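REVIEWER CHECKLIST
Item 1: Sequence provided? yes
Item 2: Single chain? yes
Item 3: Sequence as submitted:
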Amino acid sequence: MTVGSCGESENKENNGGNNMMPDMAKKMMSKMQNSSFSPQKMCENMTASIEKTAKLAGQANDEVQMLFEEWAGEVEKELLVILENNCQTDNQNFDAAEIADKLKVSENTVLFFLSRLIKDKKVEVVKLKIK
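Item 4: Structure as written out by the authors:
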């Protein structure tokens, strides 16, 4: 038996024997009835909280985006230097794990930045080896 959205009871088949949610709902309803609970005040508080969060997210978004782009540019530069050094030393093999260790990022991050460099035509793939 669970509490419905309007306070009526609904029969639910197979709730897995978990009565935690109905019990919690009953406790919440009891607290709301025994205190000076105001649904209007609750909605006002929620709306104010959402507005504050949206405002903060909007302000931080530009700065965070700028910081990410700066970091991404630095990682791309470092990756290009590593790739150029590999070409000069006749080490034409690409080892994502080794490069990830040098850059202190994950292999997936190395592959992400490599794909960006290829897309931006800063790196050209001239040989492909399939394992």
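Item 5: Key structural point noted by reviewer: Residues 1-14 have pLDDT under 50 and may be disordered.
Item 6: Recommendation: ____
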